[in-house]
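Handoff note, outgoing to incoming analyst
You'll be picking up this chain. Sequence as last confirmed:
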Amino acid sequence: MSDKATQFRSDMSDIIRHIYKLPVIFMTKVLKNNKTISENYALLGKLINEHLDLFPDKKKTLEICHTGKFLMFFDNLTILEVTEKPDFILFDGNNQIGLEHQIIVESKSKEREGFFENIFSLAEIELKEDRELPNFLASCYIEPYANFKLNEKEYLIETVKKVVKEYVLNNNFIENPLIESLFIQPHTQKNIHANMGAWWQKNITLEAIENAIKKKNAKISTYKEKGINTQWLLLVIGSSGDSSFEMDKNLKLEMETEFDKVFVLEDLRNVLYELK
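Most recent structure output, in case you need it:
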């Protein structure tokens, strides 16, 4: 079939979808990264190191790392500028591309993870000031069904401090309602790691994907005010924890979006999907 005939069929399909208000269906495509581990490691540093030095805050650091992993799937894309609205301006050697970044998590599980991470972080800060304690790394496994209220925060911080200190100094585990078990090893600092234990990641749903796109769609006119007409959206899933999702490889995006391309990066597995 000639290029003109192919284009004609595509145009007619668009007209029919518009008349009957049919959804646009985009098939999920898996992008390949054929580089070796050492090549990827070197490339990631080249892509992000100079930007990490300029943005030490945790949120932007995570965005930069995700974007660097995303760019490793391409041969000619670099970060031209780290901005806001959109989050990044990319450059392919000829054109600038706006890239917006969004992490998708299951909010209820994320709230629980954040609550416990905050408890252990605050306990760690106080234990760092305890001169009785040598340096250590404490891996604390949280009771799988532990559930506490916000007004119990101080009690939980004191519990963590008491349990960890007793175990570090005397190798004695104090029974408590928060920490199921813990493991201590030598370290260069005093650090506590909260381990949520095993989790079962759920497949991402079409609704979760579409809600994330809709949220960013509302802002795309603001992104284009910078004069960058090509706009991409990077959705990130698949980090550690019960709040994370796995990709459903059979997912088909069935919605209109002004983003020129929509990608999903499965973080820990380092797999990139192109939805549009």
